[in-house]
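Exercise 7 asks you to align residues with C-alpha cells for two separate proteins.
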Amino acid sequence: MSSGFIGKRLCTRAGEAIEGGLQSIYGEQRKVNPWKSVERSEMTATREKAMAEADVIAWLSANIPEWRLEDGWIRRTYKTNSWKGTLMVVNTVGHLAEAAWHHPDITASYAWVEVRLMTHSAKGITDKDLYLAKKIEEVVQWQPGSETDNTLEGTPKDPRFAYIKYD
C-alpha cells in the first residue's frame, strides 16, 4: 500500500483517508501518524524467497536465453541503432516495470540499454524478476511484420527507420 498527500489529506492506495491524525476504516477510528510512511511489510504480506542460482540459470536457459545471471542480477543488454532507439527501449521497460510495480536498474548509452533485475527484499532473484524479464523480452523484441497472423506491417527494413537491433 502506498500513500501520498493531496492537499491536507493523506490518501492511500486502498482508499483510506487520513486527516488530523485520525483514520476511519469501516466506521472505526484510530489515531495514526500521518507523517509515517507505509511500511514495506504492509505492501507485501509475505517476503519472497530468492531462488537458487542453478534454478535461475535453468529457467533463463529454457525461457529467455538472451538473459544471463551475473553478480546476483539477471541482465540483458539491448543494442539499438541510435539514441532514439535507446529512449524507446528505456520507456518501454519503464512502462512495464511501473505496471508490474517491480523496478529494474537501467543503464543507457547512445546505442545500448542494459536492464538488471533483482528483488532487493529477497536479496536475490525471485519469480517477479523472471516474469518481468520475460515480459520485457517479449515486448522489446516484438516484430509484428514477421508474424504470419498479424496485419501490422512492422518497422520498414529501411535503415532510416531502424531503432533496435533485433537478435
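Second protein for Exercise 7:
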Amino acid sequence: MTESSQEPPQAPQAPPELAISEQVAVYQREFPNVDPQVETIVSTLSRLSRRMTVAYGRHLNDLGISSADWEVLKALIVAGAPYRLGPGELAKRIGLTPAAMTHRVDRMATAGLVTRSRDESNRVRVNIELTELGREKWLESMRMAAVFEESLLQDATPEERSELAGALGRMLRRVEDSQPDAQGRTDDLAPDDSER
C-alpha cells in the first residue's frame, strides 16, 4: 500500500456519556451510601451547566465575541450609563489581574467593543467605556440567550419556575458559604431568593 492511499489515523473516540441513571447506578455500586436522588440532581445540574456553557459559547461565537469579552461587556452594562469603569474596578468586578484586564481591553478596543479614554476630572485615570457596537453585541447575546433559556423552561409552570429558582438559589448560597473561594457571585441574587 502506498503512503498516499493510507487513511490518516483517526483520533480515538470518547466513549458515549452514560445516562444520568446509569451514572448514579455506578456510583451506588461503588459507594453504596450515596443518596441516588441527591446524586441524580447534582449530576443533572453539572451536565446541564456544561451543555449550557457550550451553547452560550456557540451563540457568542456566532456574534464574533468570546465569553471573556461578554464578561467585560456585562460588567460595563451592570455599571449603568454611561457604561464606563476604570480598568482596576473592571478587573476587580471580573476577577482578573490588572495585567490580564489590560490584555483583554486591548483586544476588545481593537475590535471596537470598548474605548479607552482619559478621565476628564483626573487626567491620570483611564476609563474603559462601552461602544455602540459593544452594546449591540451584548443586547444581541441577551436576545439569543432569552430564546434559548425560555426553550429550556418551556414545560415548567410559573410555580415550578419559582420553586426551582428558590431551590437553586439556596444551593448556590450553600456552596458559596462553604467554599470561600467561590464567594462573590451571590450579589446578583435578590435577598428573598434564598427564602423561597
